[in-house]
Amino acid sequence: MNGPVTFDELAALMKARAGLSVDPREMERRPDATFAEFDLDSLGLLGIVAELEKRYGSPLGNEAEGCKNPHAFLENVNNQLTAAGV
Description:
Strand content: under 5%
Domain Carrier: 4-85
Distance between the termini: 9 Å
Largest sheet: none
InterPro entries: ACP-like_sf (IPR036736), PP-bd_ACP (IPR009081)
Number of strands: 0
Oligomer: single chain
Protein name: Minimal PKS acyl carrier protein
Pfam family, one: PP-binding
Shape: globular
Radius of gyration: 12 Å
Number of helices: 5
Structural class: mainly alpha
């Protein structure tokens, strides 16, 4: 799995890890919408971070876990993966 993590992938992870059905286009259209607005809590976000770390074989750290919205999360994760050469 190379390339940036997308809104589609994040929506699929939210479904798999937290049981939430979220339209990835809605997340993309609403840059200031928080994870809470999509009903994702911090535990659900931790699960998503853990899954991405497993998939990409690269630690993401506390910065990703602290992101409050999907846009910031994807930017942070993709920057970290790029820096790690993934």
